[in-house]
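Fold Annotation — chain and its backbone

Encoding — discrete vocabulary of local shapes
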Amino acid sequence: MMPPSEQYLYQFLPGARPELASDPTAWTPQDTAVATAHVEYLRRGAEEETVILAGRSQDGIGPAIVIVAAASEEEARRFMEEDPLVASGLFGASLHPYRVAISRRPI
């Protein structure tokens, strides 16, 4: 399956509880369940060739991002809004058109 040619980046933003981005002790068991669902959501997206890259900075300060391939901005926005971290309100997110310019492997 060939992925769509458009690419978008979404960056996570502080949500209802901004401390979650930098304080690992702030996470409740329910928050952790949402985070687990988020990881599974992104794994499925990668298997379906929607997710190109996902990751977060390790210092608690820098960004957490997901780069997706989508047929349209609406499709990318839907994927972002259905991400469990965003859908739950734990984090917000902003969507931006994006183009991977250099990669170790062709995308």
